[in-house]
């Protein structure tokens, strides 16, 4: 028997239309995006309770403005644009931005390549990431913390998918070079 494959983009569009008609139908969209939004918020804010509050605000806003979503670009990119705005709102009310060199509780951001490294290398990489300009840290967060595609991360930041991919590859190459330079100095 042949297995039927579904198109995730069309499935998401159907879910969005269903949620527009009945807000209770938003649950599958919420289930898909709540953890990436929370991880992203936590990587920015550092405090789990505040990250939960911001995540709740994001989805309240999504529910309230679902009729405004026009289907241009990805739904995930739209959700993360709202998330970025809610995080900005949070910091306008509270404290300065959490940098990636800080260690938020229950979550540690590092690109996939660093997973097998020793603690000293991870700390060194964290310091290098923390020294990057905020817009470069944000791109890494969207790609690796939130798990967005290059296209979605680009949409959130106003870049093409190709530009987002190129910037991330360049950032990773620069981080690798910094790590190798430090290895040679030792």
Description:
By secondary structure, the protein is mostly helical. Helix content is 68%, strand content 0%. It has 8 helices and no strands. The chain is globular, with a radius of gyration of 18 Å. It starts with 7 loop residues before the first helix and ends with a helix. Mean pLDDT is 83; it is low at 101-108.
Helix-strand category:
mainly alpha
What fraction of residues sit in β-strands? under 5%
Number of strands: 0
Kindly provide the radius of gyration, computed on alpha-carbon positions and rounded to a whole number of angstroms.
Answer: 18 Å
What is the element string, with H for helices and E for strands?
HHHHHHHH
Largest sheet: none
Task: From the structure above, extract its key features.
mainly alpha, 8 helices, 68% helix, globular, 186 residues, 0% strand
What's this, in brief?
The chain is 68% helix and 0% strand.
Could you give the topology of this structure?
Layout: H1 8-21, H2 27-45, H3 48-65, H4 75-93, H5 119-130, H6 134-145, H7 150-157, H8 161-185
